[in-house]
Amino acid sequence: MGLVEKKNKELSQKEALVIQMGGDAQVKKQHDKGKLTARERVEAFFDKNTFREIDKFVKHRSTNFGLDRKVIPSDGVITGYGRANGRSVFAYFQDFTSRGGSLGEMHAGKICKIMDKAVKAGVPIIGFNDSGGARIQEGIDALAGYGDIFFRNARASGVIPQISAIMGPCAGGAVYSPAMTDWVFMVKNTSYMYITGPAVTRAVTGEKTTHEDLGGAVSHNTRGGNAHFACEDEEDTFNSIKTLLSFLPNNNMEDPPRFETADSPERKCPDLDTIIPDNPRKSYDMKEVIRDIIDDGFFFEPHRYYAENIIVALARLNGRAVGIIANQPKYLAGCLDINASDKASRFIRTCDAFNIPLITFVDVPGYLPGTDQEWGGIIRHGAKILWSYSEATVPKLTVITRKAYGGAYIAMSSRHLGADIVFAWPMAEIAVMGAEGAVDIVYRKDIEGARQSEKVRKERIKEYEELLYNPYIAANRGYIDAVIKPFETRVRLIEALELMKSKSDTLPPKKHGNIPL
Q: What share of the chain is helix, strand, coil (3-state, %, to 5)?
């Protein structure tokens, strides 16, 4: 046997030991939980034969608590790069079969290395998280490892897309890196995120809960908003991440990929002429409006189950990726509240960071009133959406479909916050507030002094509606660029998007703004 053949055989033997991960028993436990192993996930996610592993033979160097006698293959994480649907990405896959995927010094070092490489290469990075948290035996070195990752998450933010997939437990310090990334995917029934688990929660607070209720995919997608997607299984997660990538550029210096479409840019949308109810108190589904306008009726919706009074989605118009923000009259009448403001603001800033034009559909009666909102900080949270639209330099197009009242009119990508083209449908109502509230303020003394006060009130309401419930005063002032017929909305948006594709807008020189967090 020649030297090269001997060395090749030795390499193959070492690789075979690493590929076994935590061993057959641990692999079986992983499968019994309905989860793939880290190496199976690599095969399932990447295009065939494109993944190249980095740091396969890295070992921990801790000697505490007998750890020097423990072998942890690849130190519990697989790192590398490859292609997913033809897109180059870096990725890491935590291996729960190897010491629970716990993070130690070298484990963190591997992740930091590929994060650095992803930034240098200018391509997305995806973390497949499946870890019990910090490796306690390594103490401060494990904590330092988390800190090094967090630092890179912050520095890479807005430079390359960062995507987190929660594929199993994710506890303690392990949850903060996903929270700092752009997008978080969770798998129903098999993935969890929490600062402290059910046992500690009960011991400290006396509160009884379960893993699923405390930190499951449904909880984080409906209550906390910490995750953007709740996927049915691991395959759905992989496919959803690839769909997301199709809307994103590799980095902040590139535009999103453009796709050919058979959906004509000249297509009219006649159903939109009848979608708004005659009764302004009745709701309709804004998602039907969006589907009718965009290419092939397809949009990709993060935060689908969170703050449903506002919709955020990625879609295409004439093959171009766009970010959509829209009030949803079906929920809370489309009012802006604390959670809706946060949801929209984060999405606006993400789209702006990665050169995705913004299209806003407006039907908003105002900010949601109430002590819960006021004491919860609606002023501060509501200001975020004002800030985010004002800060965004990508093309901003707006369509007012029906109501646009008060401060919420301003907040929803109005001309005053830098919208480039603002359209309104003929039935749009642009006013400081609803007729009833306005009349009760403006004509309070007249109504109180009238013998038939309710009759006078109704007359004043009718006068107010006839005077202000239309888009033409705003159009007269130049705040609306065009009042358009609903059926022509797709055509007009595509024309405007083409017009603004080379928009140039820069912010004043500064370190960064001080957003009202």
A: 45, 20, 35
